[in-house]
Design brief:
Shape: globular
Radius of gyration: 32 Å
CATH class of the largest domain: Mainly Alpha
Oligomer: single chain
Order of helices and strands: HHHHHHHHHHHHHH
Number of domains: 2
Structural class: mainly alpha
CATH superfamily of the largest domain: Urease accessory protein UreF
CATH architecture of the largest domain: Orthogonal Bundle
Distance between the termini: 81 Å
Number of strands: 0
Length: 296
């Protein structure tokens, strides 16, 4: 078709007298041909776009709303509920020693808060809690009562201060009580009884998610997000920080959270250990701090 158009134009140029009948006829023919070509291209384009849109918006199978199975959707719903600030475990009343760190001048702005929390996550209680969560989840999933009891006992003992013990055991007890009341599951009571004593927060999250058959990886990431968000919330009230700075700190800690979660998922109880000594001291010093807003 393009070659034919060029040929028609050549014929028009050869017409000696513009405005003659043959000249006007040739120009009309050229216009008609070009209109046909343009219309054909437009129709082809529209047809292609419509086909692409129909393919892109093709409804997924009934069991895959938004690309998730029904079980995956339910698991996400529960994790978002259990590990949201609205879940009443009392996390807002604990700072994990951050209150003393602010009092001592170790934390004075968004940058120093981010550095402090990165250390707590990667080298302190954050990583250890992740290891306990993973170990509890695996033991509960495998119905290994002896292993679950060992994890629960070690996690309860693996705290450096009295207030840290109060923080993790109180949240663990509250998490278990609410899960049994509102989200009970066959076998959950048996799993809880196998722990044989106090259940700290990461162990509680691990065994409840295992009882509900929620995979360990998303549980771990949701747990770390909740933990980090609570620490930032405490820091924002104590420094104080604005909402934008708080979100900047949360964004800054994203790669630390991801990396720590990966390490915790791959670790065993033999890999437990903390090097965040200043954070541990902060938890101890907070016990005798004169003026306090938080319980730890």
């Amino acid at each position: 078709m393009p070659a034919a158009v060029m040929r028609m134009r050549q014929i028009a140029r050869r017409c000696r007298t513009p405005g003659t009948t043959i000249h006007r006829t040739v120009m009309i023919i050229i216009t008609m041909v070009m209109t046909i070509i343009t219309t054909s291209i437009a129709i082809t384009t529209i047809t292609t776009v419509i086909s692409m849109l129909m393919t892109a918006s093709k409804s997924p199978p009934p069991d895959h709303p938004g690309g998730m199975t029904e079980a995956e959707g339910a698991a996400l719903y529960r994790l978002m509920t259990w590990l949201s600030p609205a879940f009443p475990v009392g996390a807002f009343s604990y700072s994990g020693g951050i209150e003393w760190a602010v009092e001592a001048g170790d934390i004075a702005d968004a940058a120093s808060l981010g550095d402090w929390l990165a250390s707590m996550l990667a080298d302190g209680s954050g990583f250890c809690d992740g290891v306990f969560l993973a170990a509890a989840h695996r033991a509960a999933s495998a119905h290994d009562a002896a292993a679950l009891r060992e994890v629960a006992e070690l996690a309860a003992a693996f705290v450096p201060s009295r207030e840290r013990q109060l923080e993790t055991s109180s949240q663990g007890r509250a998490f278990i009580d609410i899960a049994r009341s509102a989200w009970n599951r066959d076998g959950l009571d048996r799993i809880i009884a196998q722990c044989g004593g106090a259940i700290v927060y990461p162990v509680a999250v691990g065994l409840v998610s295992a009882a509900h058959e929620i995979p360990i990886a998303p549980t771990m990431h949701a747990f770390f997000h909740a933990l980090t968000s609570n620490w930032i919330s405490a820091g924002a009230r104590l420094v104080p920080l604005g909402q934008t700075d708080s979100q900047r700190v949360l964004a800054l800690l994203e790669p630390v959270v991801v990396a720590t979660a990966k390490r915790a998922l791959q670790a065993s109880l033999d890999d437990l250990g903390s090097a965040a000594f200043r954070a541990d001291l902060a938890g101890m010093r907070h016990e005798t701090q004169y003026t306090r807003l938080f319980r730890s």
